[in-house]
Amino acid sequence: MIKVLVVGGVTGSGKSTLSVKLAKLFNGEIISGDSVAVYKELTIGSAKILPKDMDGIDHHGIDILSLQETFNVRDFQLYARKKIDEIVARGKLPIIVGGTGLYIRALLYDYVFLDEVETDMRWADSLTNEALHDELSKVDKQQAQQIHANNRKRVLRALSIAMVNQKSKTELLSEQSHSMLYDAMILACTLPRTQLYTQLDIRVEKMMEAGLLEEVKQAVSLAGWDHPVMSAIGYKEFKDYFDEKISLDRAIALVQRNTRRFAKRQITWFMHQMPCRWVNMNDENDLDQAIEEVKVWMSR
């Protein structure tokens, strides 16, 4: 199996710096697993690594799209798997870096996107929500139990999946093994909570000093608030400010609060979704030990 090193974990913990160090040690190239860093116009709020900090290491998946385009988890899966093959062909180690856990999981595992189907559902236009939900119950009782009748969009999607595949979504999901496609070692970076939260608050303040507000303005003028990426932390909080519903200080405080909450969710996600080797980035001994473990893994 192809070896893939993953540097995941908590936002603001030093993943980018560690990934560059590992790339230099193990002849690697880096693939960004960040859902915002793909956009050329979003630099400050995404906290993407800058060219001066890449130290000569090739980085992929950064600044590859404009805000006139969209990029989702399936797009990332296809893009990153292609890059992995190219990096391996050059005799180098692919290193995936980022805290968007779903992106990393979709890349590493045989994750099939059942929602990526299209079929003509105009026949359903005349049906009430309840009648449409009854149709779903006939073909996929389990999904019908999980989706409320008023959630018409999800009911339609579950029905379309069943129609295209001639199997219910429940059956299709049960057939997926969700096995790992690569020989992956996953490092999950973290910091003591008090230190992490303090650093995250300071990072937001530095983003504001660097021009985050102007970046948000430009992004809105290019893509509008309806663009999926504008729901990202660091951007969405300013909508009410521009609509004159809250003060700038309140918007900044919301970015800080939401970033802290996101960090907490990342810890929970990586703890339960993938086998990780946690690295305390505040502990030099633990960091050195983790690097030694990567060496052992590389030699196997």
Question: How would you characterize this protein structure?
Answer:
Helix 4 (129-139) runs parallel beside helix 6 (152-165) and helix 8 (193-210) packs across helix 11. This protein has 12 helices and 6 strands. By secondary structure, it is α/β, with parallel strands linked by helices. The chain has helices at 15-26, 73-89, 101-108, 129-139, 141-146, 152-165, 169-175, 193-210, 212-223, 239-242, 248-273, 284-299; strands at 3-9, 28-32, 59-60, 93-97, 183-190, 277-280. The protein folds into 2 domains: 3-111 and 178-299, P-loop containing nucleotide triphosphate hydrolases (Rossmann fold); 122-175, Histone, subunit A (Orthogonal Bundle). A 6-stranded parallel beta sheet has the order 3-2-4-1-5-6, sandwiched between helices.
Q: Quick summary of this structure?
A:
The chain is α/β, with parallel strands linked by helices and 300 residues long. Helices cover 50% and strands 10% of the residues. It has helices at 15-26, 73-89, 101-108, 129-139, 141-146, 152-165, 169-175, 193-210, 212-223, 239-242, 248-273, 284-299; strands at 3-9, 28-32, 59-60, 93-97, 183-190, 277-280.
